[in-house]
Amino acid sequence: MKIALAQINPTVGDFDGNARKILDFTANAEQGGAGLVVFPELAVCGYPPADLLEKPAFVARAGQIIEEIAARTADGKIAIICGYVTPAHRGTGKHVMNSAALLRNGRVEFVQSKMLLPFYDVFDEQRYFASAQHQRLVGIAGEQVALTICEDAWNDKSFWENRLYNVDPVEELMRAGGSLVLNISASPYWHGKLKTRREMLSAIARHHCKPVIMVNQVGGNDSLVFDGSSLALGRNGEVIAQAKSFEEDLVFVDSESLTGDVHPQPQFEEEAIYRALVLGTRDYVRKCGFSKVVVGLSGGIDSALVAAIAAEAVGPENVLTLGMPSPYSSPGSIDDSRHLAQKLGTQFEVLPISALFDQYNQTLAPLFAGCKPDMTEENLQARIRGALLMAASNKFNSLVLTTGNKSEMSTGYCTLYGDMVGALAVIGDVFKTRVYALCRYINREREVLPTAILEKPPSAELRPDQKDTDSLPPYDVLDPILEAYVERYETPEAIAKAHRFDIDLVRRVVRLVERSEYKRQQAAPVLKVTCKAFGMGRRFPIAARTQV
């Protein structure tokens, strides 16, 4: 049987648009000679639909669309497997189930529902879905197919040392006589995920000595970026077919000869992260109904990286970059920003804020009489810039992209209603040291980002001769502490011992992290590219006094 892996980019709730994609890819798959085309998890409604699942009309529409797709493909010779939502059985306490339909001969011939419902990190499926109590094999063109949905394949005992579930749906289906594992997924990307997913699926193939096919969603939905990277594996776990990463794709695999198309993959982790950020930015802007963005350029490396991502994501003609010098801005900040905008091809405008800053200080002078200038005046500059960015956003119907990195968000080295203003935190899950690595990746063949920006010492330029190291440890010291504490929940003592850092320094950094939770929970959504990003996958109380 020739199988087409249809890696599509659905939009949550866009039933008509998603149906058109499914029909278009089905037509292309049939033209390519496939007898079966497979689409991702919840392809009809998009993943994750969150509380839209609580709306009966949403669930009913999903059922209508799947019936329409079946009817409109009745004349074809190709079968379709597609993810959608179905009403849950009475007595489950839930409204819906996460299901996959086999469409053949103009009707829904078979439905399989998801058994394992993830409830960790960004996943909260037990909030919405009822779990399938049993699953069955389905016969397709002589194959006994073990049809599973995403997490159903993530519990193989030969791969995981500590399993989250007592049941392994794949093992049960293969024990019943399955000849092929077929998994439809909406598996989001983060650093290292491509390798882990491939190794896990390879372990399943070797364990059962059967081919494994996984079709994954691609695209950005809110904070999550889905990389696609759909693949087919032979009985020994070798890759026999592979879709592209971070873009829609259609690849074919023959289940008898175990041969297929192998499309190129990212060669370096920086390439994968960069492409994830571009895709996440593009889809966030587009799926929110916008086409243009605004980026404030400081002359520093963070805003330069965000501007480069934006230019590739939505096109340089749709990016407005603003330089907003204050009394403490160095001459190079505007010159370097203008040079960057020229290289990227974006519009660049200068809005000086010195006069506005003076007016703020004059207005506040009676209230602040007898007080020395401090962080208050520094933050005023950031908040003036935030107001100007939002004015441009309103006037030109554009989204503001924030430019803060994960090191800054972790420690609170950012200003509420200032540099945190915006619709999307593009690099909010990228530590400062990785910002430099990404910039070197962008400049790998030619100078896209001016060398002067990459070489200058990091500075917010909110007071004379200010440097980031005035407030924070050097980033090559800070980032390992933050990665260990924020992403792996290691204790200060363990971090200090592992890295041979001074324990008081580590504790000071940890205090900064804990004191800044209220800021992070008011931040723009963060594009997730690590195992633990700020946002829905990391939930901490704001009003707390942490002792560990």
Number of E-type strands: 20
What characteristic shape results from the CA principal axes?
elongated
CATH architecture of the largest domain: 4-Layer Sandwich
Q: How would you sum up the major sheet?
A: 7 strands, mixed
| Computed Rg | 26 Å
So how many helices?
16
CATH superfamily of the largest domain: Carbon-nitrogen hydrolase
Percent helix: 25-40%
Structural category: alpha/beta
CATH topology of the largest domain: Nitrilase/N-carbamoyl-D-aminoacid amidohydrolase
Unreliable residue stretches: none
Describe the overall structure.
With 548 residues, this protein is α/β, with parallel strands linked by helices. Helix content is 36%, strand content 18%. A 7-stranded mixed β-sheet has the order 5-4-3-2-1-14-15, covered by helices on one side. Strands 6-7-8-9-12-13 form a 6-stranded mixed β-sheet, covered by helices on one side. A 5-stranded parallel β-sheet has the order 18-17-16-19-20, sandwiched between helices. Strand 19, helix 10 (406-411) and strand 20 form a beta-alpha-beta unit. Helix 1 (15-31) runs parallel beside helix 2 (56-72) and helix 5 packs across helix 11 (432-442). The longest helix has 21 residues, at 375-395. The chain is elongated.
SSE layout and pairings?
Layout lengths: L1 E6 L7 H17 L4 E3 L17 H17 L6 E9 L8 E9 L2 E7 L24 E3 L2 E7 L19 H7 L4 E6 L7 H16 L3 E5 L1 E4 L2 E4 L3 E3 L5 E4 L6 E6 L4 E2 L8 H19 L5 E5 L3 H14 L4 E5 L7 H14 L2 E4 L3 H11 L10 H21 L3 E4 L3 H6 L12 E2 L6 H11 L8 H5 L19 H13 L4 H8 L3 H13 L1 H4 L28
Parallel strand pairs: 1-2, 2-3, 7-8, 8-9, 16-17, 16-19, 17-18, 19-20
Antiparallel strand pairs: 1-14, 3-4, 4-5, 6-7, 9-12, 10-11, 12-13, 14-15
Helix pairs in contact: 1-2, 5-6, 5-11, 6-7, 6-11, 8-9, 13-14, 13-15, 14-15
